[in-house]
Design a protein that fits this description.
It contains 12 helices and 10 strands. It has 477 residues and is an alpha+beta fold. It has 3 domains: 1-38, Cytochrome C Oxidase, Chain J (Irregular); 56-133 and 184-355, Beta Barrel (Catalase HpII,  Chain A, domain 1), CATH 2.40.180; 418-472, no CATH class. Strands 1, 2, 3, 4, 5, 6, 7, 8, 9 and 10 form a 10-stranded antiparallel sheet that branches. Strand 3 and strand 4 (119-126) form a beta hairpin. The longest helix has 17 residues, at 327-343. The radius of gyration is 25 Å and the shape is globular. It starts with 32 loop residues before the first helix and ends in a 5-residue tail after the last helix. The model has no long low-confidence stretch (mean pLDDT 95).
Length: 477
């Protein structure tokens, strides 16, 4: 026997095919509450899309510890070799809207939620180890330069190159973006990175700076610009479909989980600021240490409930894992949960995909979409009724700071070119040709006043880098 259709209040619905009208040809009556409920809910089905990372795909999986790192972190997720923790991973493109193509040339989001016994741990990164900016005050402007022109409503490469002409700190990420790795072949064949510098701290209160790397066991595959353009028209959901169907077939994608570890004291004497998001740490200085494996093995049952409403925040850090002075990370600690409160409501962490598997004992009450018992004890602390209390044993070690409070220039004297040049010189001759061809293609037709400063930036990375792009544009440096 089929189930009886009901209203949201659970009332059986007698008629779902015809509206209640005044006579056979008469107008619809407002007392048709089933119709009103259907229309009102329909009008509100679409929550605001993310400003960035709007188009995405996700899956559940398992993180398994393969190496003992308790000397670096007291976090329960790393407590013993063989320990398994459920995860949810959301992939995404960055600049496009929800209906955009999966095959755009764009960084890919790599946001991983761990359901640990000490609360949620969100590691929110990308498929690149660096980013375009190091100072969060520039982030909104950078994103605006990548989005649609507010006057015309369409995207214009003039805007991004005009911005980058004045922002050489982006050169490292630009080189990755326009290289062969700028268009991954789906989500399974790419690496992931925490990107920022984070911290680990152990039971002794010792802190270590850390970078997280996720190395695809499927290998790296990328799309050519021609193939990506073809798929954008024929199958704009290519990456989303590929991930879902692979898991349905039992072809579970896997990544090796690795870290780079820097003792806390090393940061002050390292040759550049190790908290600069535009830089990578040398693997010779701090080699990769494999600590675990990540496997995706279960698809969501409902895209909206589990992928669209999945909310990740770098501020979700269980004891033993911490932030760092990385300025971009510091801003994200605020910006991400603030965006979720706007998109999903103040109680977004009660949604099933975001809910901690461990007990939540807070004094938060009320707010829109509160759908639990709203607390079984009073909502103030300290109190005399035995309510939840602080636990000093999980306090993070203190961090020594020095210097003046000021709007310090993060770009003055900073080397924005060496690492981009090093990456360029690692590429084969064929890869360099494709890289410079793609960049030149996006610059064609732009004013010389925009093109020439950018060519100077590329030449400072490597003279050949700038010269190749200039030659393709019919210009001389």
């Amino acid at each position: 026997m089929s189930k009886t259709l009901t209203t949201a209040g659970g009332h059986p619905v007698a008629q779902n095919q015809h509206s209640l009208t005044a006579g056979e040809r008469g107008p619809v009556l407002i007392q048709d509450m089933h119709l009103i409920e259907k229309l009102a809910h329909f009008n509100r089905e679409r929550i605001p899309e993310r400003v960035v990372h709007a188009k995405g795909a996700g899956a559940y999986g398992t993180f398994t510890v393969t190496a003992d790192i308790t000397k670096w972190s007291r976090a329960a997720v790393f407590s013993k070799v063989g320990k398994k923790t459920e995860t949810f991973l959301r992939f995404s493109t960055v600049a496009g809207e929800k209906g955009s193509a999966d095959t755009e040339r764009d960084p890919r989001g790599f946001a991983l939620k761990f359901y640990t016994e000490e609360g949620i741990w969100d590691l929110v990164g990308n498929n690149t180890p660096v980013f375009f900016e190091r100072d969060p005050s520039k982030f909104p402007d950078f994103i605006h330069s990548q989005k649609r022109d507010p006057i015309t409503g369409y995207k214009n490469p003039k805007r991004m190159w005009d911005y980058w002409a004045k922002s050489p700190e982006a050169m490292h990420q630009i080189t990755i973006l326009f290289s062969d790795r700028g268009i991954p072949d789906g989500y399974r064949f790419m690496n992931g990175y925490g990107s920022h510098t984070f911290s680990l701290w152990n039971a002794k209160g010792e802190r270590f700076w850390v970078k997280f790397h996720f190395k695809s066991k499927q290998g790296i595959k990328n799309l050519s610009p021609a193939r990506a353009a073809e798929l954008a028209g024929s199958d704009p959901d290519y990456a989303t479909r590929d991930l879902f169907e692979a898991i349905e077939r039992g072809e579970f994608p896997e990544w090796r989980v690795c870290i780079q570890v820097m003792p806390e004291a090393d940061a002050a004497k390292y040759r550049f600021n190790p908290f600069d998001l535009t830089k990578v740490w040398s693997h010779k200085d701090y080699p990769l240490v494999e600590i675990g494996e990540l496997e995706l093995n279960r698809n969501p049952k409902n895209y909206f409930a589990e992928v669209e409403q999945a909310a990740f925040s770098p501020a979700n850090l269980p004891p033993g894992i911490g932030a760092s002075p990385d300025k971009m990370l510091q801003a994200r600690l605020f910006a991400y949960p603030d965006a979720h409160r706007y998109r999903l409501g103040v109680n977004y962490q009660q949604l099933a995909v975001n809910r901690s598997r461990s007990a939540v004992n807070s004094y938060h009450r009320d707010g829109s979409m509160r759908f639990d018992e709203n607390g079984t004890y009073d909502n103030y602390e300290p109190n005399g009724f035995g309510g939840p209390a602080q636990d000093p044993s999980v306090a993070e070690p203190p961090l020594a700071l020095a210097g003046t409070v000021d709007r310090h220039d993060q770009h003055k004297g900073n080397d924005d070119y060496s690492q981009a040049g090093d990456l360029y010189r690692l590429l084969s001759a064929e890869e360099r040709e494709r890289l410079t061809q793609v960049i030149a293609g996006t610059m064609k037709g732009l004013d010389r006043a925009i093109v020439l400063p950018n060519l100077e930036h590329f030449a400072k990375c490597d003279p050949d880098y700038g010269a190749r792009i200039a030659n393709k544009l019919g210009l001389k440096l």
